Amino acid sequence: MAREDGWGFGASLVVAFVLLVVAVSALLTMRGSVQSRVMERSLDLQEVGQLVRAFSDKVSLSNSALLAGGQSLVRDTEQARRRFLETADRLSTRLDAPEDQALVAEVRAAEQVHDAALHALLYAPTPREQKLAREQLARAHGRVRDAQAQLERKVQVRLAQENHAALLADRWETGLLLLASLLGLGLASALAWVLHRRLNPLRREAAASAHRFQALVEGVRDYALVLLDARGRVASWNPGAERIKGWSEAEVLGRPHSVFYASEEAATGVPERELARALRDGRLRTEGWRQRKDGSRFWAEVSITALRDEDGKPQGFSVVTRDITEQRRNERVQELLAEAGRVFHQSLDPDLTAAEVARLLVPEVADGCILYLLTPAGELRPRAVTHVQPEREASLWEALRRFPPRAGMPPAVWEVMRTGRSRMDVQVEPRDVEASAETDEHLLLIERVAIGSSMVVPLRAGSETLGAFVLLTARGHRRFAQADQVLVEELAGRAALALVNARLLREAREAVDLIAVTAHDLGNPLHALQLLLSKVQRAREAGRDEDVRQGLVAARGQAQRLGQLLHNLLDLSRLSSGKRVLDAAPVDLGELAREVVERFAEAAAQAGCDLKLEVEPGQVGQWDRIRLDRVVTNLLSNALKFGRGHPVTVSVSALDVEHTRLRVRDEGVGIAPEAQRRVFERFERERTRKAEAEAGYGLGLYIARQLVEAHGGVIHLESVPGRGATFTVDLPRIPRPVEEAPRAEASSLQQ
């Protein structure tokens, strides 16, 4: 019975299908004829519209060309006029009625009159003729518009007639369609009953499979699973994507996937290029920075797969994203530590060692880095400044140069130096930036850097703090985490140890040099002193009193030179051990300079130098008298040595309300430009043909610089070879607080 029912159902289905095909064929034939006529009239109306637009384009272009001088009128309007004429030719061919063709001919004639009026206006020599040409052009323009309007109304009337005929045909079609629909409804009901019985189990299985897949997708928390449509807009969003990227599904659906990229990458078209590569290759695996809803960034591993239908047509993309920031951070930590180890082992310059580590931190850990090193005078000075953006690096340098960090100011670097503990601000608030600025100009320089997050890490070796790293991230880029602080503290500790080791190695080498310097510089005056004393003894035995007197004077000079060398070596020993302590008290620098000049009067006469002193009264400050005496003595001794036979001038004057200036000038051989950068370094010699035999090692200038900087001052040199040299010392009258020297040390210096 089931088989017979099946054959009967099949035969009925075939008969119904044949009847349906016949009815539909009749309907399609009738409707096709009517629709064809309606389509022809619609195309006629469309061509009329194109004719109107072509003429409007010509008018606009001609007006623009006339405003520009009219030289390019023909070239600018040529294409629009050719389109107008081609459209008019097509209308003449399509329109069968004579009256329609006459209207087209009238439009063409009016356009020719308009074109002639344009050329007449272009070549009109006088204002009167130009006015007549404009009036003729306006009349021609109106005539063209009227003719186009008549033609358009005519075509619209014919289209309305065809639409009315199509409406009548639709009524007949509706009856036939209703009959076919009733038959199809019966067949569809029977077919639906059969399909329901056969396909319902399949439907339940498909629903269960979709539910299991949805549960699997929503259960994935460590991966962001995103579906994009063919235009790259979000079509599906799983909970893992919400956890990693911060957007909810309602917030992100329909948005372009470029919102997940860093702003600079989105601006350069990186998202579109990656989708194009995935579409071309089928799949793309890549890594890079991605952006969360709150603006923070994470390093992502991304897999993009192009989705296509059975015909190969693109349907969209599936994007699987995994946050591998910590994994990459761990890898970079190992790489940075290895690179830092290489730097520590290869570099022997202490400052360069720490500066190289500062450059390693950018851009891997931070966008910007400032390395401060503590000077023996207790000042924090920037040793290295680097930033991923050169213009922001320049702003940092400018801010540090004009507004250095000072104790008691809001910047956290002094707090870190005092406590020895790191400080991290995950998000720098605008009020914190305003509090750290000394002036409005300082605030402007800081705001140019756009600090979003900051971290200050000390360079500690044992209980000693040598300096600090200041790390910065750009606003809206990334924020520091605890892992960043641990990494930088590890690098800072290694850098501090390397800094101490490098300094110890340098001091050990300099100690060897010091022995050689001592043997050389002490041997010469001792040998000269022995020769002079022998000469004095022979002169005394021979009764030559004048020779005895001269010999004693020369011996006294050698003894003074020997004493000065001993003082310099003593100061050098203390400087090498880091004991640059001061015993500050009120000192009149003018009176001190006068004492030194009087002490060198005899030496100046022997050198043939006219020694002058220029003092401005009242130059009193809180200084260490013994150390300043050493500075003036070394500078004046150097001037007499290289200015032999020329005038030497010592001057003391006020630089401003808070500073005093000391100058020692000679008019001797001068110092070559390439040597001026090294004269303040330890053991440097400036050799000249005239004074090579007396030059000696440059301990005096090195010690003078160290002692001046211990007072918070600066010393610099100006010299032209053959025209002498000028050493200038600028001292603050109230130096920054320094440690008092022990009494025993002060007494030993006085002795």
TrEMBL record:
<keyword id="KW-0808">Transferase</keyword>
<dbReference type="Pfam" id="PF08448">
    <property type="entry name" value="PAS_4"/>
</dbReference>
<dbReference type="InterPro" id="IPR003661">
    <property type="entry name" value="HisK_dim/P_dom"/>
</dbReference>
<keyword id="KW-1133">Transmembrane helix</keyword>
<keyword id="KW-0472">Membrane</keyword>
<dbReference type="InterPro" id="IPR035965">
    <property type="entry name" value="PAS-like_dom_sf"/>
</dbReference>
<dbReference type="InterPro" id="IPR036097">
    <property type="entry name" value="HisK_dim/P_sf"/>
</dbReference>
<keyword id="KW-0597">Phosphoprotein</keyword>
<feature type="transmembrane region" description="Helical">
    <location>
        <begin position="176"/>
        <end position="195"/>
    </location>
</feature>
<dbReference type="Pfam" id="PF02518">
    <property type="entry name" value="HATPase_c"/>
</dbReference>
<keyword id="KW-0418">Kinase</keyword>
<keyword id="KW-0812">Transmembrane</keyword>
<feature type="domain" description="PAS">
    <location>
        <begin position="209"/>
        <end position="282"/>
    </location>
</feature>
<protein>
    <recommendedName>
        <fullName>histidine kinase</fullName>
        <ecNumber>2.7.13.3</ecNumber>
    </recommendedName>
</protein>
<keyword id="KW-0902">Two-component regulatory system</keyword>
<dbReference type="InterPro" id="IPR013656">
    <property type="entry name" value="PAS_4"/>
</dbReference>
<dbReference type="InterPro" id="IPR036890">
    <property type="entry name" value="HATPase_C_sf"/>
</dbReference>
<feature type="domain" description="PAC">
    <location>
        <begin position="284"/>
        <end position="336"/>
    </location>
</feature>
<feature type="domain" description="Histidine kinase">
    <location>
        <begin position="517"/>
        <end position="735"/>
    </location>
</feature>
<dbReference type="InterPro" id="IPR005467">
    <property type="entry name" value="His_kinase_dom"/>
</dbReference>
<dbReference type="InterPro" id="IPR050736">
    <property type="entry name" value="Sensor_HK_Regulatory"/>
</dbReference>
<dbReference type="InterPro" id="IPR003018">
    <property type="entry name" value="GAF"/>
</dbReference>
<feature type="transmembrane region" description="Helical">
    <location>
        <begin position="6"/>
        <end position="29"/>
    </location>
</feature>
<dbReference type="Pfam" id="PF01590">
    <property type="entry name" value="GAF"/>
</dbReference>
<dbReference type="InterPro" id="IPR003594">
    <property type="entry name" value="HATPase_dom"/>
</dbReference>
<dbReference type="InterPro" id="IPR004358">
    <property type="entry name" value="Sig_transdc_His_kin-like_C"/>
</dbReference>
<dbReference type="InterPro" id="IPR000700">
    <property type="entry name" value="PAS-assoc_C"/>
</dbReference>
<dbReference type="Pfam" id="PF00512">
    <property type="entry name" value="HisKA"/>
</dbReference>
<dbReference type="InterPro" id="IPR001610">
    <property type="entry name" value="PAC"/>
</dbReference>
<dbReference type="InterPro" id="IPR029016">
    <property type="entry name" value="GAF-like_dom_sf"/>
</dbReference>
<dbReference type="InterPro" id="IPR000014">
    <property type="entry name" value="PAS"/>
</dbReference>
